[in-house]
From TrEMBL, chain A:
Pfam families: ABC_tran (PF00005). Transmembrane segments: none annotated. It is found in: Cell inner membrane. InterPro entries: AAA+_ATPase (IPR003593), ABC_transporter-like_ATP-bd (IPR003439), ABC_transporter-like_CS (IPR017871), P-loop_NTPase (IPR027417), PstB-like (IPR005670). Part of the ABC transporter complex PstSACB involved in phosphate import. Responsible for energy coupling to the transport system. The lineage of its organism: Bacteria, Bacillati, Bacillota, Bacilli, Bacillales. One of its GO terms (molecular function) is ATP binding. The keyword Membrane applies. Gene3D superfamilies: P-loop containing nucleotide triphosphate hydrolases (3.40.50.300). This is Phosphate ABC transporter ATP-binding protein, PhoT family. It comes from Paenibacillus aquistagni. Residues 13-254 form the ABC transporter domain.
UniProtKB/TrEMBL annotation, chain B:
SUPFAM superfamilies: MetI-like. It comes from Paenibacillus aquistagni. GO terms for cellular component: plasma membrane. Belongs to the binding-protein-dependent transport system permease family. CysTW subfamily. It is found in: Cell membrane. This is Phosphate transport system permease protein PstA.
Length: 259, 291
């Protein structure tokens, strides 16, 4: 959480003049934002303000929604991810995503983790074994499931399933991890486990998370971005934003005066 | 005494009466169906049980009822299902995948969809006419096992497509998103996530459609399946018969002994259908446990 180290982190994602329309609905309005690497960036704001939409522009999941139109620049490591040089499959391999509800496949724990690596052509059993073990260890799930890898993923608890989904995302070796309210369906203990996990993971990955939980944003993120009605209102170091917001609307939101 | 005092006893007793009457009505409705079915079953079993022996399975049809069997019909039915199953599975599930996953949701797709749903309700004899025109005459496949199987494939395709579509549509969006978010292509997502999530529903639909085909007579009569076959088809181009046609033939004879034979044939066919339906249920349970 120390701001001194964060300042040293380089920018990984650049968003410039981003506008997004669902048909005629203007969901993101002229968003400008930089996201540093190997840090946790939190998106906060009232429901419907466009947090998930912005998150989905980062792995182009919006492409699949009919009628979506996007203007502006989203670049990652200096490359425009919407340019024709970028294959969406490669982008999504580099930018993993964890969803609000745990969504394992109807397969064994092992096959859930191996799903991504297999997509990208890894066939060797020993290599897959290795990846499965590593990913589950990173997601702090290995000790709980190592004897049951052949069991259905649905035999796990909700919190375990969500960590399985994190492990599954890590198994393709991404650089960025997007988490859209990944703990909102979980109990407090599982939530805490995932927050701790995020702290571990940020040493290796750039993490962008959406949360409705102010304490969670304050506890786990390095920078926080506040959105309102599709606009980015304020972007700052988390400590600053929560202790000394510069915009009146941010202050009203974090002190619970609306939202 | 205080809390429950204000109850409107009369109104409640009226509600309960209504509940009771409807309960009885529903029982009556259910019983009528079951009684009719039982009567039918008992009648057939009483008629057919006497001829239900090994000869029925090992003998070819004969002009003498005592010696007649349905070996060629049973084998014909099995062969037909074996040919139909893979063709109708691939075509039906393929079309369902296309319509649900690939096709743009536009007017043309909706038109195709409407057509398929309508086709599922077209009388089976119409498929017989179609089969006669296309396969028997058009492609000169004659009155072969292949012609029959292809005609029956046409008959069951709409049913398979519609049921597979329903199974595919029931797969939650989150399952697809999970796959796409890992960098999967469309086909990888269909194969790795959508089909495993919907396969039990798809297979159930396929099996029920095939069991419908086993009992169908009209289209095969139309394309000219024989009623008296004293040999087993040795290739898909051979002539053939199937169980319902054999039964139909026996029933249309004047002698009572042939009618009893038909009843035993019906028992065999029904056992086969029940077995297929049970396997559909087992399949569904087996997979739905994993999902
Ligand atoms: N597929 C879609 N088609 C049309 N409009 C959409 C679509 N998805 C989202 N929207 C609209 O875009 C706006 C932003 O939605 P988004 O899901 O990004 O909000 P959010 O900030 O994530 O809200 P929440 O906190 O409730 O998840 C909302 O007004 C929503 O109604
Ligand atoms: Mg959202």
């Amino acid at each position: 959480m120390s701001t001194a180290t964060q300042a040293a982190n380089q920018t990984l994602i650049h968003i410039e003049q981003l506008n997004l329309y669902y048909g005629t609905y203007h969901a993101l309005k002229n968003v400008n934002l930089t996201i540093p690497e190997k840090a946790v960036t939190a998106f906060i704001g009232p429901s419907g303000c466009g947090k998930s939409t912005l998150l989905r522009t980062l792995n182009r999941m919006n492409d699949m929604i009919d009628g979506t139109r996007i203007e502006g620049l989203v670049s990652m490591g200096g490359t425009d991810i919407y340019s024709s040089d970028v294959d969406v499959e490669t982008l999504r391999k580099k930018v993993g995503m964890v969803f609000q509800q745990p969504n394992p496949f109807p397969k064994s724990i092992y096959d859930n983790i191996a799903y991504g690596p297999r997509l990208h052509g890894i066939k060797s059993k020993s290599q897959l074994d290795e990846i499965v073990e590593q990913s589950l260890k990173q997601a702090v799930l290995w000790d709980e499931v190592k004897d049951y890898l052949k069991r259905s993923a649905f035999s796990l608890s909700g919190g375990q399933q969500q960590r399985l989904c994190i492990a599954r995302a890590l198994a393709v070796n991404p650089d960025v991890l997007l988490m859209d309210e990944a703990t909102s369906a979980l109990d407090p203990i599982s939530t805490l486990k995932i927050e701790e996990l995020v702290q571990e993971l940020k040493n290796k990955y750039t993490i962008v998370m959406v949360t409705h939980n102010m304490q969670q944003a304050a506890r786990t993120s390095d920078q926080t971005v506040f959105f309102l009605n599709g606009e980015m209102v304020e972007f700052d170091q988390t400590e600053t934003l929560f202790s000394n917001p510069s915009d009146k609307r941010t202050e009203d939101y974090i002190t619970g005066r609306f939202g | 005494m205080s809390m429950f005092e204000d109850a409107n006893r009369k109104q409640i007793s009226n509600r309960r009466k209504k509940d009771l009457y409807l309960h009885l009505l529903f029982i009556a409705a259910t019983s009528i169906g079951i009684i009719a079915l039982m009567a039918l079953l008992i009648n057939i079993v009483l008629d057919g049980i006497g001829r239900l022996n090994l000869d029925l399975f090992t003998n070819y049809p004969s002009r003498v009822a005592e010696r007649a069997g349905m070996k060629s019909a049973i084998v014909g039915s099995i062969y037909m299902v074996l040919i139909m199953a893979p063709i109708s599975f691939v075509l039906g599930v393929g079309a369902a995948i296309y319509l649900e996953e690939y096709a743009k949701k536009n007017a043309i797709t909706r038109f195709i969809q409407l057509n398929i749903s309508t086709l599922a309700g077209v009388p089976s004899i119409v498929y017989g006419i179609l089969g006669l025109t296309i396969f028997v005459r058009g492609l000169s496949l004659d009155r072969s096992l292949l012609s029959g199987a292809l005609t029956m494939t046409l008959l069951v395709l709409p049913v398979i497509i519609v049921s597979a579509q329903e199974a595919i549509r029931a797969v939650p969006r989150a399952r697809r998103d999970a796959s796409f978010a890992l960098g999967a292509t469309k086909w990888q997502t269909v194969y790795g996530s959508v089909l495993p999530s919907s396969i039990s529903g798809i297979l159930t639909g396929v099996i029920l459609a095939l069991s419908r085909a086993i009992g169908e007579t009209a289209p095969l009569v139309m394309i000219g399946a024989l009623t008296f076959v004293a040999f087993l088809p040795s290739s898909i181009m051979d002539q053939f018969t199937v169980m319902p046609i054999q039964i139909f033939n026996w029933i249309s004879r004047p002698q009572v002994s042939f009618h009893d034979l038909a009843a035993s044939g019906i028992i065999v066919m029904m056992v086969m259908l029940v077995l297929m339906n049970i396997s559909a249920v087992i399949l569904r349970n087996k997979y739905s446990k994993q999902i």
